[in-house]
Design brief:
The complex is a heterodimer.
Chain A: H1 2-8, E1 11-15, E2 18-22, H2 28-34, E3 58-61, E4 64-67, E5 78-79, H3 84-100, H4 116-123, E6 147-149, H5 159-167, E7 173-176, E8 183-186, H6 202-206, E9 212-214, H7 229-246, H8 248-265, E10 267-272, E11 281-287, E12 290-295, H9 309-313, E13 328-331, E14 334-337, H10 340-358, E15 363-366, H11 373-387, E16 392-393, H12 396-399, H13 401-410, H14 420-425, E17 428-432, H15 436-439, H16 441-454, E18 457-461, H17 467-471, E19 474-476, H18 483-496, H19 502-508, E20 509-510, H20 512-518, H21 524-531, H22 535-547, E21 551-555, H23 557-560, H24 565-578, E22 588-591, H25 598-603, E23 610-611, E24 615-616, H26 620-630, H27 643-651, E25 657-661, H28 665-668, H29 672-679, E26 684-689, E27 701-704, E28 713-716, E29 721-725, H30 738-748, H31 758-768, E30 785-787, E31 813-814, E32 833-838, E33 863-866, H32 868-874, E34 881-885, E35 890-897, E36 905-909, E37 937-945, H33 970-974
Parallel strand pairs in A: 1-5, 15-16, 15-25, 17-18, 17-21, 18-19, 20-31, 21-22, 25-26, 26-27, 32-36, 33-35
Antiparallel strand pairs in A: 1-2, 3-4, 6-9, 7-8, 10-11, 11-12, 13-14, 13-27, 23-24, 28-29, 29-30, 32-37, 34-35, 34-37
Helix pairs in contact in A: 7-8, 10-30, 11-30, 11-31, 13-24, 18-21, 18-22, 18-24, 27-29
Chain B: H1 23-36, H2 39-48, H3 50-62, H4 64-80, H5 85-103, H6 105-108, H7 115-123, H8 126-152, H9 181-185
The chains are: A alpha/beta, B mainly alpha.
Keywords (chain A): 2Fe-2S, 4Fe-4S, Iron, Iron-sulfur, Metal-binding, Oxidoreductase, Repeat
Protein name (chain A): Formate dehydrogenase subunit alpha
Domain 2Fe-2S ferredoxin-type (chain A): 9-85
């Protein structure tokens, strides 16, 4: 309601005497742009706010000249753009800008129609160079693998610094305003590659010129940019020789011609990131198959201009020479190439034979969370409607199902309660078992910004001291697998001390008394004893939560990948219900979805027990609905095997054939040795992937699929947001989009799957699934998105439970009583260390995508993190070689000694085939949904060699030293004796 | 039991593919563009009619007017190479402003005859003579050059040869050199 009231408010401002309608608080620049009134500006960016550095937006107010970027609409605001002094001041500003920035547009990589310096100079009709341009006494910084900084072109607008400090909040960039020639610095003076820069690329994205450029653009953006600088320089000098006579006019005409030509050559296609669940969308700039840059815009509903290293720079895999481009058929001890007809005929025939011989439940399908919703839908439809089995699952089994279970038990919908904007609005964010800064970096940046600038408090609970823990207002480091205990103790404390929202509970939640009784064992003292947290820290967490108006709970694999992960997820949701933190802005439960479409893969039915839209396969009514919808005679009645139980079913001889799509099961399923052994037992196995994966080694047929940029479709992000991705380029070689492969196979198996485009699949889903009733490609066009549930009229749901109607028949939420049980994976005298594991920022999961490119320059080797105290105890140091052995297997790794882990806790990243941690994980799994307990591993460590090189490259950001500042410090610029406020002429325009 | 087959037993042809346009792709694109933009049609039409159009062009070039035009074009280009671009710009700006002034409605109204006293007043009009002085200076240089050329050269083909270095050295860039001089004068803040 608050949002609605705000959008309805209006006021009138006057510009040069003309009344304009505006929204109170609306930035003046945005208001003028809406009314098509041009006020020049360069440093202002809608997502960064006023920086006040460029001095090109001066307007006259009743109090004299003011920078327009600092003004916001309010009733009675009157400004003038026309007076001579305002115009002179603006021209003085732009003259200073081009004294710092050499305009050589036609040979510049940024001359693509969106160069803001070029466009501002052109739009202001600047006739020519007033102050001479002068080069700076600094070399170009070419050290970084992904971008280049050119001080000679930098206008010191401060956007990059603001983005780094206050949007990404990585706090690497600063400007030294006191130098003779001020400049942007990395870690106060390092070269970019050796700094704390996390390569998020946001500085490059917001740079208004070519001072910061993606390396992939260099020399490739335009026909003239490929010239080497020893040709560009004399040509530029020649043009500059003529320019004082001709002015900018004719030269700008030439550069505009060049820019127009580039538009014909460079395609810009909106797509959605294929890595984590944040759902960043952006334009991908390509020339043919060459990816020139990823350019997010402020229109991205989940990310705006933000990205992380993977979304911005992690696309080398698309053109990798390891991509599968022809179908393969096993022949003896090798594979041979085949054409699609032969391969798909073989698949159809063999699937049919296995079904006829052993029944439909002898086959199983694994859908991919990397694939689109439409592809997930076809996978489960192939399993259910064509083969006749519910043996279909996706990798949410490995990660998200316990979180979803916690929400199913308590509030009803298995999705995040609200949007990223809700997380930003919260007073307290409780983060449990989530390494958000590395696994969901763009959401982490929103949280870090809210903490840095809006007083948001962060309570972080994790066995590992990661970045969010370092930044936390309160960091809890409990013993592994004991989160449920302290969460229940906090909840009991809240109830006992009057912090429970009794009005909310009485009106909207069932089962309070029973739940309250279940909390009786969870005293603070008991929790401190079990978790090894101090009583004071547990009480402090409870007090911070209890006093807060709005609390969000955020959790991830550090909660779910445990034997009792579903229960711990439930405990978080119970806590939020006790404090009334559902249904309001800035509240709710937010399990962080790990893959780009792990939410959608489940939403669209690739789970062993549900149809699309979470209708149970065991519900006769739902089954009849889908049977009629798909036009088949029958559908299987019982839930099928899940990803994890499929392997045991192979072992028991129940499963004879598997069809695995885009899932590296041989590496990512727990107890990998056991998994591979059982793949070898199958009668028939199909792997559909973009790479010849470790899983593909066991296949009988390997089908080359297309990654996200080679097809159309939709993804659902962690906010339940459905977004459309457009095809950026044609599939490589003979590869095909997964939906096209599945549709072809469906036809070969006798079903009329004549889908010509994924939109037709989505239309079918919308027709049959109430949750997606109003979803259509038209409503998802461009940057538009919809958050489910989506009503038939297209109304979506950015925030669940706003009307306090929970997703149960009676609209009431439920408390779910819990008890604590310890992990079955015991630490004992032999296996005396606890091994934790997970992703790192640079790589995605097992590394099949990110391992195929330049990200390896930043981090390639996998390692084991060892605490300083354990290192002393065992006589190891960074670079030592050790063997880790669990009760299942062993791996060898190099040591990295770090305070991120403590005591006898270890941590191993996932991103490599060598040292694969799943050789150590076991079959123990969440008792409710069988998610492997990846985070519960007892190991022993043997030292193989003490001396060795560090596994962490010197140029990794973890070696950098951040320099946090509150803002870019423009006052320091103004305080310089050689700064003269426009319209006064500058004495040293080339300096700043 | 199926054994794992390692990637080294996968035929190389099944992996990777062409990821960047080669010369053939660029040529195909060029051909496609030339066709879609009707450039091929234009060129084909021109080539098919080449004998006729060649005859026409040759005839025109051979005519007295054609020869003179070609020679004059050459002289013009050679002479322009001697004129500093700033001077040419100033003259052309002045000419443009003069043409604009002459085209205005008031300029078309007939001036009343000044009479003897009027002429006398004009002869004492300091401002008028001040404004005419550059024109007179230019006129003197112009007639002087005409005389010198007539004295030293029998004909246009061997006319005064420009100094190859002349006009090559442009004045150094200065603050304000690119802006409208009038605007600069009126804008003391920027000086």
């Amino acid at each position: 309601m608050h949002d609605q009231a705000q959008t309805e408010a209006r006021c009138t401002i006057h510009v040069d005497g003309q009344p304009l309608e505006a929204t109170p608080g609306e930035p003046l620049i945005a208001c003028l742009e809406r009314h098509r009134i041009d006020l020049p500006h360069l440093c202002y960016h809608p997502q960064l706010g006023p920086l006040e550095t460029c001095d090109t937006c001066w307007v006259k107010t009743g109090d004299g000249l003011a920078r327009g970027c600092t003004l916001q609409a309010e009733e009675g605001l009157a400004i003038e753009l026309a007076p001579r002094e305002a115009d002179d001041a603006r021209h003085e500003g732009i003259d200073r800008v081009i004294a710092r920035h050499e305009l050589y547009c036609s040979v510049c990589e940024n001359n693509n129609g969106n160069c803001e310096v070029h466009n501002t100079v052109r739009d202001m009709r600047v006739p020519g160079q007033r102050y001479p341009y002068e080069a700076k006494p600094y070399a170009k910084d070419t050290s970084h693998p992904f971008y280049t900084y050119d001080p000679d072109q930098c206008i010191l607008c401060g956007r990059c610094v603001e983005a780094c400090q206050n949007l990404e909040v990585n706090e690497t960039l600063t400007i030294d305003w006191e130098r003779d020639h001020p400049r942007v610095l990395w870690d106060g003076g390092e070269v970019a590659d050796q700094s704390s820069c996390v390569s998020c690329g946001q500085c490059v994205t917001v740079c208004p010129c070519n001072a910061l450029m993606e390396n992939d653009m260099l020399g490739r953006a335009g026909p003239l940019t490929a010239m080497p600088w020893d040709i560009k320089r004399p040509l530029t000098n020649a043009i500059k020789g003529v320019e004082p006579t001709t002015g900018f006019g004719p030269i700008f005409t030439l550069s505009e011609l060049d820019s127009t030509q580039r538009h014909a050559d460079i395609q810009r296609t909106k797509t959605v990131c294929t890595y984590c669940g944040v759902g960043c969308s952006f334009e991908m700039w390509t020339r043919g198959r060459e990816i020139l840059k990823v350019q997010p815009t402020e229109h991205g509903p989940a990310n705006g201009v933000k990205t992380c290293i993977k979304g911005k720079f992690g696309w080398d895999f698309v053109n990798s020479d390891k991509r599968l481009t022809r179908p393969l058929i096993r022949e003896g001890d090798r594979f041979r190439e085949a054409d699609w007809d032969e391969a798909l005929d073989l698949v159809a025939r063999r699937l049919g034979e296995v079904r006829d011989a052993h029944g439909p439940d002898a086959l199983a399908f694994v859908a991919s969370s990397k694939c689109t919703n439409e592809e997930s839908y076809l996978t489960q439809k192939l399993a259910r409607a064509v083969i006749g089995t519910n043996n279909v699952d996706n990798c949410s089994r490995y990660c998200q199902n316990p979180a979803t279970t916690g929400l199913f038990r308590t509030v009803g919908y298995g999705g995040d309660s609200g949007s990223i904007s809700d997380l930003e609005m919260a007073d307290v964010v409780l983060m449990v078992g989530t390494n958000t800064a590395e696994n969901h970096p763009v959401i982490a940046s929103s949280l870090k910004r809210a903490q840095k600038h809006h007083g948001q408090q962060h309570i972080v609970a994790d066995v590992r001291r990661h970045e969010m823990a370092e930044r936390a207002d309160l960091f809890l480091q409990p013993r592994n697998s004991t989160d449920l205990v302290w969460l229940c103790a906090v909840t009991r404390y809240l109830i006992d001390n009057g912090y429970a929202d009794r009005e909310f509970i009485d009106a909207h939640v069932h089962g309070f008394e029973e739940y309250r009784r279940s909390l009786e064992p969870f005293t603070v003292t008991y929790a401190a004893e079990i978790t090894r947290l101090s009583e004071a820290s547990i009480i402090e967490a409870a007090e911070r939560i209890g006093r807060a108006e709005r609390v969000c709970g955020v959790w991830a694999m550090g909660v779910t990948q445990h034997t009792y992960g579903s229960d711990t997820s439930t405990a978080i949701s119970n806590l939020l219900l006790v404090t009334g933190n559902y249904g309001r802005p800035g509240t709710g439960g937010y399990p962080m979805r790990g893959h780009n479409n792990v939410q959608g893969a489940s939403d669209f039915g690739s789970l062993c027990n549900i149809f699309p839209g979470y209708q149970s396969v065991e519900d006769p009514e739902a089954r009849e609905h889908w049977r009629r919808g798909w036009g088949v005679d029958w559908l299987p009645e019982k839930a099928g095997f899940n990803n994890h139980s499929m392997i045991n079913a192979v072992s028991e001889g129940k499963l004879k054939a598997m069809y695995i799509i885009g899932e590296e099961s041989a590496l990512v399923d727990a107890n990998a040795n056991h998994v591979r052994e059982n793949f070898g037992r199958l009668d028939f196995m199909v792997v559909q992937d973009i790479f010849f994966s470790r899983t593909a080694e066991y296949a009988d047929v390997v089908l080359p699929a297309a990654p996200s940029v080679e097809k159309e479709g939709t993804f659902v992000n962690t906010e339940r947001r459905i977004q459309r991705l457009y095809q950026v380029m044609e599939p490589l070689g003979d590869a095909r989009p997964d939906w096209a492969i599945l549709a072809d196979l469906g036809r070969r198996l006798g079903h009329p799957w004549h889908y010509a485009h994924p939109s037709e699949i989505m239309d079918e889903v919308a027709r049959l699934t109430p949750l997606f009733a109003g979803v259509s490609y038209e409503r998802l066009e461009g940057w538009k998105s919809l958050q489910w549930p989506v009503a038939a009229d297209g109304t979506d749901t950015p925030r669940l439970y706003e009307d306090l109607e929970f997703h149960f028949d009676d609209g009431m939420a439920r408390f779910h009583p819990l008890e604590w049980r310890d992990s079955p994976e015991r630490i004992d005298d032999e296996y005396d260390l606890h091994l934790n594991n997970g992703r790192v920022l640079e790589h995605f999961h097992e590394g099949n995508l990110t391992g195929a490119g330049r990200i390896n320059d930043k981090l390639s080797e996998v390692f084991v993190e060892v605490s300083p105290e354990l290192a002393r105890e065992r006589g190891v140091e960074t670079g030592s070689r050790v063997r880790l052995a669990s009760r299942r297997g062993e791996i060898e790794l190099n040591v990295l000694v770090t305070e991120r882990v403590t005591g006898h806790g270890l941590y191993v990243p996932l991103h490599t085939r060598e040292g694969n941690v799943n050789r150590l994980t076991g079959d123990h799994a969440d008792v409710a949904v069988e998610t492997p307990a990846y985070k519960e591993i007892a190991v022993k460590m043997d030292v193989l060699q003490v001396d060795g090189p560090s596994p962490l490259p010197r140029n990794n950001h973890r070696n950098g030293q951040r320099i946090p500042i509150h803002d870019i410090g423009v006052e320091r610029k103004w305080a310089r004796s050689d700064y003269h406020r426009p319209p006064q002429a500058s004495t040293d325009p080339e300096r700043f | 039991m199926a054994q794992a087959i390692k990637s080294d037993r996968v035929p190389a042809g099944a992996l990777g593919g062409k990821t960047a346009p080669d010369a053939h792709d660029e040529l195909a694109r060029l051909i496609d563009n030339l066709h879609r933009r009707q450039i091929f049609r234009l060129l084909n039409d021109a080539l098919e009619s080449l004998p006729e159009t060649s005859r026409l062009i040759a005839g025109e070039l051979e005519s007295e007017g054609g020869v003179r035009g070609g020679a004059n074009l050459f002289v013009l280009l050679r002479t322009l190479g001697r004129v500093p671009p700033e001077d040419l710009q100033r003259w052309l700006d002045a000419a443009a402003r003069g043409i604009s002034a002459a085209s205005r409605e008031e300029a078309r109204e007939a001036y009343p005859a000044p009479g003897v006293l009027g002429v006398k007043d004009l002869l004492h009009d300091e401002a008028l003579w001040h404004s005419l002085s550059p024109l007179l200076e230019g006129l003197k240089a112009f007639t002087g050059e005409l005389q010198a050329a007539a004295d030293s050269s029998p004909g246009p083909a061997e006319g005064s040869r420009p100094d190859p270095e002349e006009g090559a050295d442009l004045p150094p860039r200065r603050a304000g050199s690119g802006r409208d001089p009038q605007e600069q004068e009126e804008s003391p803040h920027r000086e």
